[in-house]
Every structure is written in structure tokens, then in C-alpha cells.
Amino acid sequence: MPYGDVLTPAELGATPLPPARGPLTDWLFRHLRRPPRDVGVTPRAVDDPISGDDFALALYCLYELHYRGFADVDDGWEWQPSLLAARARLEAAFERRLREEVGRIPPTRDVVGALHTLLAGPAGPSLSSYLAEAGTLGQLTEYAVHRSAYQLKEADPHSWALPRLAGAPKAALVQIQADEYGEGAERDMHQTLFALTMRELGLSPAYHAYLERLPGPTLATTNLVSFLGLHRGHRGALVGHLAIFEMTSVEPMGRYSAALRRHGLGSAARHFFDVHVVADAYHQRLAATDLAGGLAAQEPALVPDILFGAHAVTAVEAAFSAHLLESWKRGGSSLLPALPVAAAS
């Protein structure tokens, strides 16, 4: 799949539901494989909303009904009232855990300064530095699988903010999203470029080809942005999430490109990362000052929510990185289950 090619309809289309992982997904998938109807009482979750495999997959699949859906799920489920009520209960538990992880955020009026202060604070081990300096090709391939859940829908959840913003912040977001979607050229959409990286690594670029292998900490990173995007009341947090994404992108993207180069991967594999190094050098100022700062000036009451989104993405990304690095330190796979040997070599 050289640069310039695009994905086939089969690679872009919806896939069937993945296998269940526990009582919550077993209950959910049994309902979703049948025509829409009342789902009754939601089973009690048995694992953590951020790190638990069953909880995270259940919430992820509920959110996926608002994206491309599943091939074996009736579209009528998207707005089925009892299923939305069940999702709301999971979201409440997810938000509680996020706020536990984030803790108290000092009040401020200076959103841009607070974002920079957050990024200047203590940070855990760097996943991108490890992959650039010491990661194996198998670990780099696993990393691409993990990121596929988000990168193959990159920009989509942030686009939910567009009808919820106005004026200068909306214009700033439009500029960012236009770049994310390749200025309207399918081959340049960042989703397409990440699919190219996956193909160059010997992976399938098909949407959700690896969903069954993604553990809770990986799914939680996408669940967070879906949760924020689907709720108008968290439009500020969605903006804070995007601001941190853009402000922390340039150096890590350069390291991931260097990791691919170190293993002999060519420009096609690195193109996704190299594009981000260039684009996000501009986006980081635009997202921090014009988008987040502009929204705070326009709606000062949203300042706490903007900062919650920024702290929340920092927390879930730290948990994600820790999961990968700890799995590799133990000599095992970070996926669930591991890739076949041929795909991971």
C-alpha cells in the first residue's frame, strides 16, 4: 500500500462484534446481536473502568454505535433508550474513576498557562523514547496495533465539538480538523496515513482488525475522547483533551519515526509520524491559545472543564504507557491475546 493508495470498502467497513471478555460484554453482546429491545437490568461491572478489560470493551462498543457500528448489530440500537440508560451508568462509573485519577485541579483563569504548567510537571517513563532507543520491531508493531483503535478514526471524536462551539474557537478547531482530514484528500487523511503505517509493518489496516486484542488501558484512551465528545456538557473538556494532544505531539511523533527508521522501515511507514511533526508544530499553538484560550475567554465558566479534559488525557495516556512498558519489561506481550509470531516479528 504505497502512499497515494486508499483503503478498500472492505477495509473501511464495519466488522462484527469481538468476543466477550466477562459478564458485562457477554450480557451486552447477547442483546446487540438481536433486534433492538429493552435490555433490562445492567449487570454489575467486575473490573476497573480504566484498566479493566471487560468494562473498557463494553463501553468502547457502546460508543462505537455512534461511529461506524458493527456488521452484526442493528443500527436501531444507537438510540435505544434502555441501552442509553445502561451506557449512562457505565459513564458515571468511568467519570468517577477519571476524577479520582485527576484529583484536585488548582483554580485559575489562565488556561494557557495552566496547560503549560501541567506539561512541565513530573512525567513517567516515555514510551516514545523507549521505542526510539531500545524497542524491538515486535514492540513497535504492538504499539501500532494499540493505537489503531483511535488512529483509524483520528479526529472524528473531536469533530463533535464543531457544532457546539462558536466564533474564534470554532474557527481554530476547523483549521486543525481540516489538516487532520487531509484538506479533503482521502490519501492525506491522517486515518489513511496510519493505515499505511500498519500495512508497512505487515499488519492489516482494516478498521477494528485487532479490537479483540486491545486491553482495557488502550480502550480507555479512546473511551475518554468518545465520552467527552458525545456530551455537550463536556465540550470544554474535549477542547482541553485536544489541546494536550496537539501540545505533546511533535517530539513523540519524531521519536516514533526514528524508531521505524532504526528498524529499516522506509518513508511510507514513517509518513504518518513525519506529517504530524510538521503539522502539530503549528497546531500546538493554535490548540492552546486560539482554541482552549479562546474558549476560556468566551465562556469563563468552562475553564474547570477544559482543565479536567487536559488532566484526564494525561492520566489515561500515562496508564496506557505504563501498561505497555511493564508488559515488555516482564518479557511478555502487551496485547490480549498476543499477535501471531509472524505478525509480531
Question: Can you put this structure into words, describing what you see?
Answer:
- It is globular, with a radius of gyration of 19 Å.
- The longest helix has 32 residues, at 267-298.
- It is mainly alpha-helical.
- Helix 7 (137-151) packs parallel to helix 11.
- The two termini are 19 Å apart.
- 61% of the residues lie in helices and 0% in strands.
Gyration radius from CA atoms, angstroms? 19 Å
Spatial gap, N to C terminus:
19 Å
Helix content class = 55-70%
Estimate what percentage of residues fall within beta strands: under 5%
Give the count of helical stretches.
Answer: 16
Low-confidence stretches: none
- Per DSSP E runs of 2 or more residues, the count of β-strands stands at 0
Based on secondary structure, the structural category is mainly alpha
Mean pLDDT: 96
Based on Cα principal axes, name the global outline: globular
Largest sheet: none
Order of helices and strands: HHHHHHHHHHHHHHHH
Which helices and strands appear, and what pairs or packs with what?
Blueprint: H1 9-12, H2 23-32, H3 53-64, H4 81-102, H5 111-120, H6 127-133, H7 137-151, H8 156-159, H9 167-180, H10 190-200, H11 216-229, H12 235-247, H13 250-262, H14 267-298, H15 303-329, H16 341-344
Task: Give a short summary of the structure.
The chain is mainly α and 345 residues long. It has helices at 9-12, 23-32, 53-64, 81-102, 111-120, 127-133, 137-151, 156-159, 167-180, 190-200, 216-229, 235-247, 250-262, 267-298, 303-329, 341-344. It contains 16 helices and no strands.
